Amino acid sequence: MNAPASDTAPPVGVFVGLATLDVIHRVSAAPAANQKITSSAQFVAAGGPAANAAVTFAALGGTAVLVTALGDDPVAALVKADLAAFGVLVIDAAEGDPRSVPVSAVTVIESTGDRSVVSADAVNSEASPPEGLAAVVAGADVVLVDGHHPLIACAAAEHAAARVTTLVVDAGRWKPVMSELMPRATDMVCSADFRTPGTSDTAATAAVLVGSGIRTVVTTHGGEPVEWWSAGSSGSVDVPPVAVVDTVGAGDAFHGAYAYYSTQECSLPERIDRSARVAALRCSMIGPRAWLRALSTNGLESDNGEH
After folding, report:
1. Maximum CA pair distance of the chain?
2. CA 20 to 30 Å from 125, out of 110, 138, 224, 235?
């Protein structure tokens, strides 16, 4: 694996996958059929698994590069501007293409923080890898792919494997491209809903992943302990209890933090614990960006590897 980032240079993370425009409304209850309701708050921000992970990585002190496909839709400019404001460099594989940027309609229930999302996603995207992708990956300490934009994801995974660079796969749900990414993955970070074909629970899925030769498998369970399997050992890490008010992007925050802490000198349980604390902080604050300012005051950000 690549050596951990030095104390004088921030780690570089390359994030490959989906970027969307999220339109988020906080409501007291989900609307019924044919009902109009008024939200108590609204937010508009860049979203998507890879994009949110990149924002978290940058907020923790890393250099974050997002490789995605946005194009020249006017909405793309909003997404790029928001990501730039939070320190993410965007490489747009669809630059010059008038394609529509996916827009996610997100509803958050005030009393629980639970969210519902409707989005076009990009699983059927035919966007090709951008020129220079190999060089971008070559400069990375860690690469994360979320399985969206499959052609780009596979190319990035191939380049990462060739350089023996840590490759984290964000496995939120099964996508056909996962079968191509798994042989090159070093770390699979799975949601409790992720299932490999033919399995019925998280333990069976983890067994398949470990049996396929993946070095480290991590499964999150919301507020329940995070399970892990690595190098013939296994265990679990408790999640800090918090008053949950907003779960939008919490899993993505975990993934971004996991990528960041994979570049630091810490054990796997420590990496998971720190990532879980980042995700817990995300859940404890309303809105997609306000929580980022609280990272330093909670002792979670790093100044180039010192904790």
Report:
1. 57
2. 138
